[in-house]
Specification:
The complex is a heterotetramer, with 2 copies of chain A (about 400 residues) and 2 copies of chain B (about 300 residues). Chain A is α+β, with helices and mostly antiparallel strands and about 400 residues long. Helix content of chain A is about 35%, strand content about 20%. Chain A contains 13 helices and 16 strands. Chain B is an alpha/beta fold. Chain B contains 10 helices and 14 strands. In chain B, the strands form 2 sheets. In chain B, strands 3-4-2-1-5-6-7 form a 7-stranded mixed sheet, with helices on both faces. In chain B, strands 9-8-11-10-12-13-14 form a 7-stranded mixed sheet, sandwiched between helices. In chain B, helix 6 runs parallel beside helix 7. The radius of gyration of chain B is 19 Å and the shape is globular. Classes of the chains: A alpha+beta (about 400), B alpha/beta (about 300). Chains in contact: A-B, A-D, B-C, C-D. Chains C and D meet through strand 5, strand 6, strand 11 and helix 8 of C and helix 4, helix 5 and helix 8 of D.
């Protein structure tokens, strides 16, 4: 989950990272009650990158200018997102600009401090200019000094930059972050440092143990559509592709392997969901059964999905209940189907037909009973297919996703 | 790694990732499960196991515990593991998925200092077919034999075992190191264990996008592993994205390939190390037969 | 530094330890705007113990009763301290009451969790009933469960009590405490827990690194006399005895040894101050010279002090400046003395004589120059004595403190 | 404990507890001071020492450092010590006074895990008269000889040495473990070192109110120390109080005497252990002469 700039700066201010005087503007008229001095800069609070290039950052010298600029920003979507807030901020005379970050490096299983004597670096060629320090043991300020020295800083500036890094690290740990970044950290002529812009990415798994973050996430979930949520919160529950075959599985590797098999068999994988752990959008604890229900709903609501392929192997929690969920969905589809008038035009049928065929692959002794009970269901021939072999299940799903081709 | 059937095993917590069936399966397999720990439930019995409030109570009653299987809620994993370490348990298998990564960083610092072996999190554990089952791997897919499996996946691990068993290729040891971005034991450690294991004649490595462990494994195989290794990487067709926990651009600045974390980078590394790669799980037995002469 | 109950409860509330609805009353009329429901209890916010016995705790059912009770409490000093605040709090139906604490145990160099199934225990016989757990390594919640189980708790109550201990520990570390105590922790009939009263002692050395605590300490220092400050903030800079010989030294052990020597030689030690590190009341960083100046002022202002014995050995920071400070004080005394009319009645002279003789013991090569320069000062015979031998210095101080006896 | 004059020594920080005179004194004594570390001052020279920003820079230039003397501000002590430990320095002497005790708790947990010897805080360090000076003990009060001194005080330690020197009794090693409530090395460790030290023939133990180290030392002397020990306890006449950092009533509940922390408790323990106790510093030589035959 990424925070917006004004939220990042609130956090920075609280933990003691120097930020400019600024004010949150919810409506252009708020600028009449501006508490900071002109000239100011107005910045669109959106998640997308390159907002300055898109016109989301404007300077103003007077209240009238500022209101006009704010109206403009409020009505300008950036990467499809309209800002709910605009940040009004003082301006700053920077002599130098640095890049600083703390990031969780999963390859070394440790947080890493990053620093560069240039801001807005080109990542392709950052290698030589960017310095890093791995925080091997419990953090202590000397790690921050190590980085500041590697960056080539000395004396008072080395001390103040390492002081900022120290606070960034504390924020990182306190709030379970994946990333905290200051870009740029401005240095004034007299050596004072100032965080002009910042980025914070919260690790999705930890959100629920921080009441303040859980509340932020809940707000985002209630305000946005599921696609936007994935963009803002991250989408670690699955992969969003644009094909016709939706995949539900139990485990990342298993979902991925199924996806590959579908693609290799000539099918187009669509949304693929891993049901092994709670979805990011779940605000309360969920069971496997809950997640299966949610997953089926997501796939059924997705207009591009023509077939649902479920791949369960070994064991899942609540096997019996899970089978019931599948059975219920299939029977509901069936009854709806029977009440429909079947027309001769295949494509028309697909439009009215509001059910999606399900291929269920179940393997393992725990599923013996399940296979049998699903097999006894009276359904339309394509509505439910239960198989044990994965390659077969994939072939069936691919076949079902091409009804017109089959009918020719 | 102590994988003898006599070694004493504890279960900490009984969250959704472990069920009565799993416990019964471990017991049926002969695993020496002595007790469960579930704070607040001391004195009860669960799945035929006596339950205690604290690990130290179990040790008081049963003596040294060799391995603990942690299945508490994700936010309680760090505490459970630290409790196990404080009670001098030297092997920890974490089944639970969804553990916050900074908790794992803290745990790994401690485990390294105390020389504790941590497997997982988000791992179904270890099975030595016919001998011992530590975790939730479904034993019905396994049969004793000479192929070692080391994997980062959960379900996909048994998928591979199932293919081997169907093809008449038994397994020596199968371990999942866990599919999370930050896990305890590494591919390298397990490749070494399997290379030294007398029963194992060939190794199957199962990988997926994210991180750099497959690349590290490929280099290690080329340098240090004498036994034949076959690999399978899931997710070649998946779009790259942060969804699979790549560190992304930031990773490149610390001397890494911009492709870091992708299935393509892993496949390239395996090719470089001349490790045969299966296209799909069902192709693994065929590739194995080319490398070793079994049956 | 000990906090008042209402401050403790604010902290408890913030960190998630359950406390009753309560309201801070600064003036009896505040009770007209009471936001909590009657019946209430009104509690005097003072540092002294046994306030209930002294009449500092009263119950009220109506606003009129409450105002009368508050007026009463506001005008009732407890151990000499008038409350500035009264706490109005809801009442609670307790089924059981426990004692819980986290304390820094200096003997084992670790924090210790303490718990007992009785509240308000008699400390003399607490031994068998009180349970403890040493927090050997970094804290983790299992230490709290260990204690709750040792206390004989089970199931949900074990969990909720260990949850409270966990939060107490986090507070302990976050705020650098010596002690955090809940006494009593009430348990209701349905097993809900509630901190009815709490105590927090902050380690004096850490105050300056917590801006909120530094502010609290500054308030106490500005409002109270130095004796009260010692009572409230703790008096780790020295010992307050009531004799005639004030002692200044560099190091706890050295000050103690000097005190013993004075007492053994028949003298009465008074206030003894260790100048080695900053005083608690210093709100800004100090030098050794600053502390010597402050120390001399404290002793000169103390009417019972008749002689000041300074014992410096080896080396002190800023030797030359320190000698200047002593010289200045002595010369000032000297000039004041010369302008006085010496009367025949010895006791009368002591009343007008507003200087205190100083005995300075200096040993070590660094003091060679200092001894010489102090020896050249022209002073009244008793005003300054510089010696190298400690036993001699003590004998001289004791002699000077008994002018009448000597004159007989 | 490495106390040879060849061992390489570093100074971290130059706060008020150390002065140019102390540094010059150490150098004059032959202590192998190689550098100072003072963040923000790298490249400068202070008291004739090259100054660096980081400990690792010193090690890069001079190789392994044996001992560091920490004199940074009280709130920076934990960081400086952790930096030294991360650079594998195995002996740390903390001169600084006023370190918050919970910082020491954290440091000691780490030092114990890494087997680092921590002396202090609030300690003037160690002197081996005629050989090496590590800290701020004024060397003029010392003369080489056979009496070992172990103390919790700072100034009082040299007061005792001064009395010995005046009486013609030289010293083998003198160490102050620090007068804070929570310190690294203990009386017990130093009693053992002095007992094993070949030069030392008798030991003087200097204590003060607070904590239970003198009591523990008394028991240890009775059990394990063969050489004669004389004790001196300051503060017998001081009123008991929290001023001297007693844990007070709370201490009693964990199985301790209600007298815990008082000079009286210490004197009683020493009497029980039959350790002769001096009334005043100037009496120590006399008691020593009764126990050993020197001069």
């Amino acid at each position: 989950m990424d925070l917006l700039e004004y939220q990042v700066k609130e956090w920075f201010g609280k933990i003691g990272i120097p930020v400019l005087p600024s004010q949150r503007i919810d409506h252009p008229t708020d600028l009449k009650r501006l508490k900071i001095r002109f000239p100011i800069v107005l910045k669109s609070q959106v998640h997308g990158a390159e907002r300055a290039k898109a016109g989301g950052v404007r300077f103003a010298e007077t209240t009238i200018d500022a209101i006009a600029a704010a109206q403009n920003i409020f009505s300008l979507p950036i990467w499809g997102e309209l800002p709910e807030v605009v940040l009004a901020e003082s301006q700053y005379d920077a002599n130098q600009e640095f890049y600083l970050a703390v990031v969780l490096d999963t390859a070394v299983c440790r947080p890493v401090l990053l620093g560069c004597k240039e801001a807005d670096i080109d990542w392709e060629s950052a290698g030589e200019k960017m310095h890093h320090v791995v925080v091997e043991q419990e953090f202590s300020p000397f790690y921050a000094r190590r980085l500041a020295l590697k960056m080539g800083l000395q004396g008072a500036l080395m001390q103040s930059v390492s002081g900022v890094l120290e606070k960034m690290y504390h924020l990182f740990v306190q709030k379970d972050l994946d990333l905290v970044e200051i870009n740029p950290l401005a240095v004034s002529a007299n050596g004072q440092v100032m965080a002009l812009n910042g980025k914070v990415r919260i690790n999705e798994r930890a959100i629920k143990r921080h009441p303040d973050l859980a509340e932020m996430a809940a707000k985002i979930i209630s305000r946005h559509t599921s696609t936007e949520i994935n963009g803002i919160l991250g989408d670690w529950d699955g992969v969003k592709m644009h094909g016709k075959i939706g995949i539900l599985g139990n485990g990342t590797g298993s979902v991925m392997a199924t996806l590959d098999l579908v693609a290799n068999a000539g099918g187009n994988p669509g949304v693929c969901l891993n049901l092994r752990h709670a979805f990011l959008t779940d605000t309360t604890p969920t069971t496997f059964r809950d997640r299966l229900e949610t997953g089926l709903k997501i796939l059924e609501a997705d207009k591009s999905i023509q077939v649902i392929l479920i791949n369960f192997l070994g064991s899942i929690p609540q096997t019996e209940e899970v089978v019931e969920v599948i059975a219920r969905v299939v029977q509901q589809n069936n009854s709806e189907l029977e009440s429909q008038v079947v027309r001769s035009n295949g494509s028309k049928i697909r439009q009215v037909q509001n059910f999606t065929p399900i291929v269920v692959r179940l393997a393992g002794s725990e599923f013996d009973a399940a296979r049998k009970s699903l097999a006894t269901l009276k359904t339309h021939s394509d509505a439910l297919l239960v198989v044990e072999n994965l390659d077969e299940a994939v072939a069936a799903a691919v076949r079902l996703a091409k009804p017109t081709a089959n009918k020719k | 790694m102590n994988l003898t059937p006599e070694s004493k095993v504890l279960i900490q917590g009984f969250c959704e990732f472990i069920s009565g069936t799993h416990v019964a399966q471990m017991q049926a397999y002969g695993t020496n499960l002595v007790a469960g720990v579930n704070p607040g439930c001391g004195g009860q019995e669960l799945h035929g196991l006596p339950v205690f409030d604290l690990v130290e109570e179990v040790i008081e009653q049963f003596g040294v515990i060799d391995t603990t299987i942690i299945c508490v809620d994700p936010y309680d994993v760090l505490d459970a593991a630290l409790e196990a370490i404080a009670s001098h348990i030297s092997q920890i298998i974490i089944i639970t998925a969804g553990v916050p990564p900074l908790d794992m960083v803290q745990l790994l610092r401690k485990a390294e200092a105390c020389e504790t072996l941590v497997i997982g999190p988000n791992s179904p554990g270890i099975i030595v077919p016919g001998k011992i089952l530590l975790g939730t791997q479904p034993s019905e897919f396994y049969t004793p034999g000479v192929v070692g499996i080391v994997s980062r996946s959960s379900t996909l691990t048994y998928e591979v075992a199932y293919e081997l068993t169907k093809a008449g290729l038994g397994q020596s040891i199968s371990v999942s190191i866990g599919s999370d971005a930050i896990v305890g034991s590494s591919f390298l450690q397990w490749l070494q264990i399997l290379d030294e294991d007398e029963t194992t004649e060939a190794i199957v490595l199962v990988g997926q996008p994210g991180g750099g462990s497959e690349e590290a494994a490929a280099r290690y195989i080329a340098e240090a592993i004498d036994k034949p290794v076959i690999a399978y990487i899931a997710g070649r067709q998946a779009p790259p994205g942060k969804s699979w926990r790549q560190t992304g651009t930031l990773a490149t600045v610390i001397g890494r390939d911009p492709n870091f974390g992708t299935a393509q980078s892993k496949l390239a590394a395996l090719k470089e190390a001349e490790v045969p790669v299966a296209e799909r799980p069902s192709q693994i037995p065929e590739l194995l037969r080319k490398e070793i002469k079994i049956n």
